[in-house]
Structures are given as C-alpha cells and as structure tokens.
Amino acid sequence: MPTSRLMRELRLRRGAPRGRVPQCPPELLPPRLRHDAPPRRPVLRGALRLKRAAEQKFANPELLARLQNATPASVGVGRTGFRYRTKTLLKFLTRFAVAKAAVESQVPEGWGEAQGWLALKSQIESPEQFLLRPDLGRQLNDASMDLVRERCKRDNTVQIVVGDGLSANAVMLNAPTMVASLTRALDNAGISYGTTVFVRYCRSKQIDVIGQEVGARVGIILVGERPGLGTGDGMSAYFVWQPADERIDAEKQAISNIHQRGLPPEEAGVQAVRVIQAILDQQTSGVKLNLEHIS
Amino acid sequence: MAILDPLVPKIKAARIIPRVDPALAQAYGFDGERYPAVGLITCDMDDPLYAALDEATKNAPVDVVFARSFYAGSGHASGPTSGEILGILAGADPEDIRRGMTSCIDYLERVAHFYQADDAGDVAFFPHVISSLGHYLSQEAGLEVGDAMAYLIATPLEAVYGVDAALKAADVRLVKNFPPPTETNYAGAYLTGGLDDCEAAAQAFAAEVVEIAGNPAVY
Q1: In A232, A271, B26, B67, which residue has its Cα 20 to 30 A from A45's Cα atom?
Q2: What is the phi/psi pair of residue A190, to 5°?
Q3: What is the pLDDT of residue A31?
Q4: Contact, A166 vs A225, CB < 8 A?
Q5: Position A166 pLDDT exceeds 80
Q6: Which residues in chain B are contacts of A14 at CB distance < 8 A?
C-alpha cells in the first residue's frame, strides 16, 4: 500500500474527516519540467549519427533475417537509447488495436439461429459486464436453462456447444466451418451428438453446465480465444469426459489456435473427432489422456 | 489543514548538464567519462527527494552520485532556489537523465510526502514505506535492490519514541539509525522486513508522532 493510503487509514481510525491533497503549483516547476513545455528534439549530427547507424549492424544478418521470418513477433527491431523506436511503437499500437477490437466484437442478434443452433445466453446482461463477471458467464440464465431442458436432445455421446468467449470475431469466422466438419466426421464415425447450441457471453465452463444437463458422455465447446497482438481470430476447442459441475481444468483437453493461419477449422473438426474417439476409448480427458497415437 | 494531511514537496530548481566537465565530475567524486550527462535538482524537503532519487534509479539507467541535506533545513535556506537538499543524477545520455528527473518529480508530486502531525501544521514527519528499493537507497541501507523499507523521519523526541514503537509493532529490524540532529535537525531510521511489516511499522510510527503532538509534555 502506498504511504498516502496508510496515512488515510490511520486518519480514519482516529475518526478525523478526510482532507484534500494540495497539488504542487505548476508555476513553481521550472519550464523544462512542466508538462505543457514544448519538447526539445535533439538533431543527430556527426559522430552521434554515425554511432547510431553503426549500432544497426548485426554480426550475422542472414541468421537474423531467418529468425525474423520465422515469426510474426517483433524480433531484432533495434532501439534508440533504452527506448523503442517510433516505428516499433506504432506497429505495437496497431496490433494492440486489432486485439482490442476483437475483444470488443459482439455476435449480431440472430446469428446463432441463422447457423441452425439453439441460441442461449449466460447470466451476463451486457458486454461491459462480461469481462468483469466471469462467474456469471459460467452459468446460463433461467430462460436458457429452461430452453435446454425443453429443446435439447438428451443422453447422446457428444454435446457440442459454441460460445463467443473473448473473441466474437473468432467464433463467427471459424465455428460454422468447424461444426460442419465436426458433425460430418461424427456421422462417419457413427458417434451420436445432441442439439448444437450457441451461448452468448459464454465462458468455457458452460460445457460442464450444458453437458451435465443433457447427460452427454463427452462435451466439446468452441470459444473465442483471448486475442494476442495482431491476432483476434483464434478459436479454441475444449473437450471433457463426463461433463459435470465438479470438472476442473486438469480434466479438460484443448486444441487452440484454430484459424486460417493456424489449424484451419475444417481440419480441426476432423482432429476433434480423433480426440473424442480417444476420450471414449480411454474414458478420461485432460492430463491423464494419452494422445501419442494421434498425429 | 488537518492532522495526517500530506505536505507536498516543491522543486526549487532543476537543470540538466548534457556533458559535464570532467574536472567538475572528479571534484564531486564521480567518473565524468562514464557519466557524462548530469541532472541537478533541489527540493524544499530532503527525505522525499532521497526517496525520489532512489525511484529514479528504477525508472532510468541513472545513478545518484551526490545527495546531501543543508543545515537547518529549508526554513533557513540560503536562497529561494536552495531548498534543503541538492541531488545529482548521472547517466550516459541526457535523455536518460530527463527520464530520471521526470520520474523523480512525479514521485515527489504523487507519493513521497511529509505529513502533518498537528492541526496547526507546525509539526511535520515522514512515515514513508518503499515497497521495492532502487539502486541508491539499497546501497545506503546495506540492503538488496527490491527489498521493502520503512523510511521514518521526525523531529528528535518523536523520532526516538516513534521508531521504538515501530520496532515493536511488527517483525522489522533496524538497518540504519539517524540520531538527532541530522543536517536539518530531524532524526529517524531505516527499518526493513516484509512489506506488510514495514507498513505496520510506519503506521505505528505515525500514530505515536501524532499522539505526542497532541500531548507533548505528558509522560
């Protein structure tokens, strides 16, 4: 705790009324250090300019180029003094904006129904509340729970849930393709599945809530992943054997980075069925599941 | 004006020397080749500036090469720009010094304050907790960078009584004692322990200083 808060606590304990913090008058600050003073830009000349240019020489430029091409991350971007270069900073801000836009994205009304899925909602009432109350995102609201009881097929082998999660963009881009591929592969393998549902304001725990209610043996949930720099379209699939309220993360399986530049959704659907078959064979999921035989 | 109101330090003067003369550097006891850029700052409260200089060493690659308090304090300053302390930051680049100075001033404005012990505002004390020491005060205190420290300063009798209370209030140990009079006629100590213990010690210190200000001669 900062000292100011320690002293405020002490003051309250003594029963005194709260005081106001006096500010240091800005006119007493010398001109260079005031926030409204114009910045002084140093112009690089002569020896200092050459020094800066020389700093950009690398011992092994080909190796650096290979490293840079191997990843979309910012590698070998250089610096100016101890600070980022302006170009690096601007690139970072752009990619951060992509991530923020993905987090703020919302699935439009009626999208779930348009895919042919049963549309449900968690106990969250607004997008702003979603990030602040993960606990409410893990439970269905009463109307949705009733819908599950009335309309969902029960006691199938697999229950498929789709949820917006932390990136609606990701789910809108990848979930329809993956669900189509997944259901086709489940049909080919002769594995039964229940009514596919779409949950708005969804956290991955919903697979336990819904899977338990419909009595499925294996649950699979597709949710938007927390976006990273420059990527807002990654989707994750979580699998769980015998979904129930008491299931913990160690008992769950995950396939992450399902998107066009990662694992394409069509392939992910097929891969998912292989995982489901392994779960059914071994009657477990998560840390204890052995997936060495799956490519 | 109320008890335990913060008293915010004022910067009296500040300057940056982009490339200090080597002879001057030598006279002040540091290497002008290694630390060509230098920042000077005076303040009307010495202990907050010591803490702020330490904070600057965490936010920029700068070192504190000089920091001393002036006799009798800012109430008897030699001039309007003297305050009661001069601190000198040194580094490789003027831009680093600028960053150090900005972080120093921000810390003085927002965090490192003296506090009032009485309603009239005649008695001031410094019950400061540093959650993570920088490179300057850690060296001064003989502790590690990142350690927590309670930096407790008050007028002479309150300081002795208050540090005693602080040592008893929590699991802290005394690392450096400043008996009165310091240059500014104050006294105090550095205490260290876990962060929670330092906070409890600082609060106990503050409570005693305020109590003495309310009943000075009752023993």
Answers
A1: B26
A2: 70, 30
A3: 55
A4: yes
A5: yes
A6: 3-4, 210
Q: Which residues of A touch B51 (CB under 8 A)?
A: none
**Which CATH architecture best describes the domain A111-288?**
3-Layer(aba) Sandwich (3.40)
Q: How would DSSP label each residue in A223-263?
A: EEPPPBTTB---EEEEEEES--TT--GGGEEEEEEESTTSB
Q: Which of A1, A3, A82 to mutate to test the interface with B (most CBs of B within 10 A)?
A: A3
- The CA-atom distances, in angstroms, between A19 and each of A250, B7, B17, B82 are 51, 11, 40, 29
A213 has pLDDT over 90: yes
Per the structure block, which two tokens stand in for B60?
């920029």
How many CA atoms within 13 Å lie on the side-chain side of A44? Answer: 9
B8 part of contact set with chain A, CB < 8 Å: yes
Looking at chain B, which residues constitute the CATH 3.30.70.1710 domain(s)?
Answer: 8-113, 117-214
Mark yes or no for CB contact B4/A3 under 8 Å: no
The whole-angstrom separation of Cα B153 and Cα B126 is 5
What is the tens place of the pLDDT at every residue in A17-58?
555 544 556 566 555 555 555 555 555 555 565 555 555 667
- The answer to whether residues B84 and B43 touch, using CB atoms and an 8 Å cutoff, is yes
Give residue B218's pLDDT. Answer: 86
Amino acid at A181: S
Q: Three-state SS for A131? A: helix
Strand (E) positions, B70-210? 85-91, 114-116, 124-130, 148-154, 173-178, 187-193
What does CATH list as the number for B8-113? 3.30.70.1710
DSSP string covering B108-143, please?
A: HHHT--EEE-STTS--EEEEEEESS--HHHHHHHT-
Omega before residue B181 within 30° of 0, cis: yes
Mark yes or no for CB contact B93/A29 under 8 Å.
no
More reliable by pLDDT, A24 or A185: A185
Which tens digit of pLDDT belongs to each residue from B150-183?
999 999 999 999 999 999 999 999 999 999 999 9
Nearest to B125 by CA among B134, B135, B114: B114
Instruction: For residues B80 and A172, give the distance between their C-alpha atoms in angstroms, rounded to a whole number.
Output: 66
pLDDT at A79: 82
Predicted local confidence at residue B1, as pLDDT: 77
Cβ-in-10-Å burial (0-12, 13-18, 19+) of A274 comes to: middle
Please tell me the CATH superfamily of domain B117-214, with its number: BMC (bacterial microcompartment) domain (3.30.70.1710)
Tokens of A230: 């420059």
Q: Enumerate the domain spans of chain A.
A: 111-288
Higher-confidence residue: A74 or B78? B78
pLDDT value at residue A228: 85
